[in-house]
Fold:
Amino acid sequence: MALEIEVDKKNCTVFTKNAQSISSLISGSYGKMEHGALFLDVQEALYLIDIRNAKCTDAARNSYSFNDVAKMLGGKKQMARYFTYAAWRDRGLVARPASEIEKNYGRDVTKKYEGGKFEKFGFALKASFYADDLIGIIDDEQSARQIYENGWFGQFGAYKAEKRGALGKLDVYETLFLMKHSGMHVKEYSQKDIEKLAAHRRQDFEPIYEVYEDWRLNGFILKTGFKFGTHFRIYFPGASPVKESGWVHSQHVLHVFSRSSKMLISEWARAIRVAHSVRKTFVLAINGQKKKKVKKAKSVQGLDFLLYHRKGADIEKPKNGRPKYLMLSLSEEEYLGGEELADAIEQCKSVGLDLMLGIADRESSVTFYAVVKIDIPSSEYEYYEIEWVQP
Structure:
């Protein structure tokens, strides 16, 4: 027997009072029982019409199509929300409206990154700075070699060929960091001069440098991520470009996403996929997102679905399990703001869940990205791994 659901145009609700339909839908974790009827969220109703061939009518037995219901009950980003909901359900998993949050679920998983501490070099450093190129040059071979081999600052000689040349070449982040934290003297330029030159060249220099400085002070090594479409690639404390085993390959890339900036979803997702394709973990830094105590919340705004996942071989359901993620539904053609993403992450933390980004492309195919918090004990900031997942 086909599922039967009913639409109430006046109250903008969809429900069923049919006993067989109620039994079937409850077993599949659909809807919510109220006063003898099972009320459905709009995405649930659309999914049942689209995938389960549900028959939708009103009290006068007039029929309603998928588009009729979507137009009548829809809100913002209706199709992005529907496609991401359907993609989760099509995997045999349960998704419920985010409005059903009742408590703090305590499922926030944090990955700990063991850091270290930057040690100031015990000798004088001198460099010349080339403003048009934002490059610092150390032409003292001994100093250039020491900071390269012992701290991996700059590039000594040629890339992957240290014996070819005797100069130390520093990018603007390395130049400024060594001026601030190891007393390097730069001919004709002060620290403020270089900050102004860099900020004039690119408006986001300040937040990018803040993140670079934070990781470097905690013992990590950051080098350009240009080849991977990100700001930096990350090496953990102890990494060296001159180990006997040969060239060290990074396992992580880092991208800085300022709260005040916006990025087209397709471009943002492309950087994550590039990192994944070269087997690197994508780390996101939201500038201005400092560690703070998160207040518990009983409701969320702007997020779309509570997602139940798997526990071992079993699929978790509302009746006997707990949700794992909160999903933010997005489409390929929209922009995501740093403030919006930061707010979504904060809301997830407040209810003890991880964030899942569901992105629907132009063919309605959906890609999922899990967002997991990183803990660097001595850092003032919070960072997040973003991983392409196949639920």
